[in-house]
Amino acid sequence: MLTGWRDIWRWAVLLPALLLALPVVVIFASVFNPQTEIWLHLRQTVLADYVLNSLLLAGGTGLGALLLGTGSAWLVSQYQFVGRRVLQWLLLLPLAMPAYIIAYTYTGMLDFAGPLQTSLRELTGWRYGDYWFPEIRSLGGAILMLSLVLYPYVYMLARTAFYEQSASLFEASRTLGLTPRQHFWRVALPLARPAILTGTALAMMEAFADYGTVQYFGVTTFTTGIFRTWFGMGNQAAAAQLAAMLTGFVLVLLLLERWSRRKIRYYHQGQRSQAANLRRVSLLRQFGILLLCCLPVLFGFIVPALQLCSWALSNYQVTLNQQFASLVWNSFTLAAMAAVLAVLLALLFAYGKRLRRDALVQAPVRLAALGYAVPGTVIAIGVMLPLAYLDGRIDALAEQWFGVRTGLIFSGTLFALLLAYSVRFLAVSLHSVETGLERIKPSMDNAARSLGFTPLQVLKKVHVPLLRSSVLTALLLVFVDVLKELPATLILRPFNFNTLAVRTYELASDERLADAALPALAIVLVSLLPVILLARSVKAANEGAH
Amino acid sequence: MLDLQQVAVAYGGHTVVKDVSLSLAQGQIGCLVGPSGCGKTTLLRAIAGFEPVASGSIRLQRQLVSSDSVQLAPERRQVGMVFQDFALFPHLNVADNISFGLAQQSKADKTATVKRLLQLVGLPDLGQRYIHQLSGGQQQRVALARALAPQPKVLLLDEPFSSLDTELREGLAREIRQILLQLRITAVMVTHDQNEAFAMADMIGVMEFGRLQQWATPYELYHKPVNRFVADFIGRGVLIPGTVLDGQQVQTNLGTFTQRYASVVQAGDQVDVLIRPDDIVHDDASGITAQVVEKAFRGSHILYQLKLHSGELVQCLALSHHNHAIGEQIGIRLDLDHLVLFPRS
């Protein structure tokens, strides 16, 4: 076997990993190019707003997701009630609803001309100015919207954590003199705390990264500030520095998430015994619990989805046209290309890590997989800066040597988008592929080799069949994530290249809410696929537990 | 102290424990044994208060805690319980686990109690460790200390050794018995391993199909089983046919024996006689011989499976150096202290 720097695996992993890590490195490196004047301006005007609003948005969303997610997880994991089985996976549905879509849907429903206020006026005879109605286009509204679609992160992890607490823990508490309520506060909740914190940290990262909702609601945060500094003021270095600051906030969350995950492992050692029996309560209380659990599903998915359907039905004759078909084609081919690329990279990295268990391979992969925590806006800027520089150099050289202009061959094409997607979603595909690969124990390789198979045959006969389902899952997850992605696509898309997400956002920004419904609905429908997949695995885990 | 009268427990119309009566005096250790599904764990959980009783009564220190109309909540019974999976709280360290049930005590009292119990279970220096840093045997001791800390009226142990290595079990069982005797605490343990029961118990109850078949001392259980099930379940042994001659004498293929205890059988009855492996002594000088069918080397002893001339199989525990090959005829002698008879069905 080759060692050290002559080992081909090292290079095969290291080079793409460094390429994927480049955007984040560029962002942080931007700090060394001080932009004194513009920072003075920012500090005097909007910086405090960016920081405060971003923190409030992330904090509020975290709290909202924590309450909704933990509450619903506790109810479905502890109580026997009518409809529990269905609700268990219905509660995941809001995952399929991108935040910017739910935001503009509720705006359409709740604003002055919307159905709710209109019927309120008809009922009461009030006119404009006679009554107070909560303004959805506000920081509070943004927190509510994000909480409604992000609580499933907390719900999923908390639910598993509550389920895995064995029945004997509850009984141990009881024999030691605790009532069921005391057990919840002193044992069940602290035990689930790492899982709940992990889910909350993920929801908060998404809130930090959100661009569509806050831009639409007119809330100034880091992400909108980065857009404004880049496109409005034309100062790329300052935009990159804002992005670095935002990434700093996110990294703190990432550390919290990592730390919590490590605790989950400890907290679950030796707790594999029988799952707790569901508690039986009176029919009236069952009904109350059912109602409570229905609320997040209703407002996080069903109501906005119905509104989208009704808009789409009202004008599909106009919107369902050639242009829509090309939107779908653009989105689907782009998402498919990104998915294939992300999975190929994931396979390369996963095998590299499996075959070379040393820091020279492990560390760059870990660095490259950090991208999932970094907001799409930040990645887009981090991709744009070096590619634009490269394009400029190539263009200049080509003109000098051959007398031709090459134009923006990297930054102005799909290459930039695909690189950004790979950075952002590598962690998603890598996680699936690594989970699949972990199931193929090294002893299986040894067994196959000892039975007379060559390494290539082992790959074909053992690895491919065992990996197939994880690879398909990875493809699907990245496909859907790319389809939903908004800010990076907005910044990096080639001129005149539109996708469903971008078009939805543009139409909604132009207050053409009904016209935006059809592309939005397309996104939501495709996003349902991974949720169904998730629901099925939840169901399988359940049947295993009971 | 602990008193059960005609206890029945039912799950959704299906009765899993029927008509169980037993009692333990202060400081006595009882064990419930039986095949899986016999209802022993359910009975233990009924004592703890996790299962309501359908009929009958459970009293703890004369206080009625369970009946068809009374169901005291588990947290108000003052029972300590050691669980099969220990159920230690992984988010707390050892000391906090042990003091978990001591809500009423002051901080200083808690510290003192924890220190005393850690000393008692032989882990004086591990108070600050977390559960995942402990071995299985150490977790077991912490679980015991936690259950003992609130000074429960009765300690319940649900298969406490089943997740430990076999080598650990018997030593730990003896050790825990010493601790319980020292504290004069009443305890009930459920196990499927009769050796554990023998190592721990003052009284053993054998259960089958939800019924308590026999409640007796280990000695009595082994030597005077009340029915075929108990005879078969406790210890090894075979039943060989015999005929009662005159109410005292029983004739079998291995000879005629005299029974010492009063019995319900009458002359002429067909009976089965329980023969334990230790009742058959290997004796080269004996006139009775049997053929070696199987042998299991046990170190100090060899357990032979022997075929009598009449065709019955019996077991014989011989000293290790009496090594015979399979197929060989060896001399045996019956050394019965007393007869255990069951009327032939």
User: Order of strands in the sheet with the most strands of chain B?
Assistant: 6-7-8-3-9-10
Number of helices, where a helix is a run of at least 4 consecutive DSSP H or I residues of chain B:
8
Characterize the biggest β-sheet of chain A. 2 strands, parallel
The whole-number mean of residue pLDDT values of chain A reads: 87
CATH superfamily of the largest domain in chain A: MetI-like
Helix content of chain A: over 70%
Span from first to last CA of chain A? 49 Å
Computed CA radius of gyration of chain A, to the nearest angstrom: 25 Å
State the end-to-end CA separation of chain B. Answer: 39 Å
Quick summary:
The complex is a heterodimer of chains A (546) and B (345). Chain A is globular, with a radius of gyration of 25 Å.
Folded structure, characterized:
The complex is a heterodimer of chains A (546) and B (345). Chain A is mainly alpha-helical. Chain A folds into 2 domains: 1-34 and 320-509, MetI-like fold; 47-314, Orthogonal Bundle (MetI-like fold), CATH 1.10.3720. Chain A contains 22 helices and 2 strands. In chain A, α9 (180-209) packs antiparallel against α12. The two termini of chain A are 49 Å apart. Chain B contains 8 helices and 20 strands. In chain B, α3 (107-120) crosses α4 and α5 runs parallel beside α6 (194-200). Chain B is globular. Chain B has 345 residues and is of the alpha+beta class. The A-B interface holds A 166, 168-169, 171-179, 186-187, 190-191, 193, 266-273 and B 48-50, 73-81, 83-91, 100-101, 103, 130-132, 139, 146-147, 150, 152, 156.
